[in-house]
Amino acid sequence: MNLEPCRERMAHMSSWIDGALEAGTLFFNAKGKPAMLEPPAAPVVDTHAHLSMAAPKDASPDERRAAAAEWLARAWLAGVTWVVCIVDASEDGRDARAFLSWLSETEDAAQREIDVALSAGLVPAFPHEPLRVGLSAGVHPYGAAELEGCLDSLKTLLASPRVVALGECGLDYHCELPHEVQRAAFVRQLELAKEFGLPLELHVRDEVGDAFYEAHREALEIVTAADAASLGIDLHCYTLGPEPMEGWLALGAKVAFGGAMTFKRSDEIRDAAAACPADALLTETDSPYMAPEPLRGRTCEPAFTLATADLLAEVRGEFLGEPRRAPFEAAWRNAHALFDPKP
Ligand SMILES: [Zn+2]
Fold first, then answer.
1. In the prediction, which pLDDT does 171 show?
2. How far is the CA of 3 from the centre of ligand 1 (A)?
């Protein structure tokens, strides 16, 4: 993206345009230093972003909409043209109708921001690729005890034409909620996924230091027993080595790599990223959490998927000799294979 014509005008533009300028792959790290991200080799998907958290919890819906619209617009300009927004029926999606209209308004606002940026001369990474905002609705393991109380909201969300997946749902044994409560909520949501014919966005996290991967093993058992793997699986936020990934790959799951893969001590995750078959790779952020290097410490936003995708390409180039384009194109294809409606 050519920033020169924009730099000249910067002084006269709204503060949003300053932000948009960042989207041209020039971002600023937590210390305020510029960090240039490599332009993407193909359009990029952020398969996991919490758009309603683009602004602090006490912000008004209008403020949250404006902040999320900026996220989406910057992402699109930078080449992250498709964002899957996560909504939790026990939290931000409790009022399902209000959330769905908020999301539509947010997308419209993002489109207006994009139009402003284009008329100001910003050159997007993929001008012919439309902005796409999908939705994945579920109840996070943290909210497992509340599932029954918000089933109506969840079903309303799942019936939205915008929905591409059910989740995030799964098991989190790092959290103190009893395992049986989590398992029951997980099983119930697998039934819903089948009823609505939706793939799964899974959140699976073991207790800290659990060398036996209990949460992963049990989640695999539950998905297998429910015969739900054929719906399609996005194993969100993969943070382990190659070994615990194998059972998921055997079920045909796709594995989403996010900011954690870029952290200095994440050699294990990078090994997994190299070991993962190309047709199982996905990219994500988990915005507003887990900003990747070199932007670690900042509030994460979907555009930052570029940093993870770039490192993924570097790792696979180094380990497998793959050309840089290959993992970009694979992750894009895989997201379509998983989230596009099946004929
Ligand atoms: Zn999440």
1. 98
2. 32
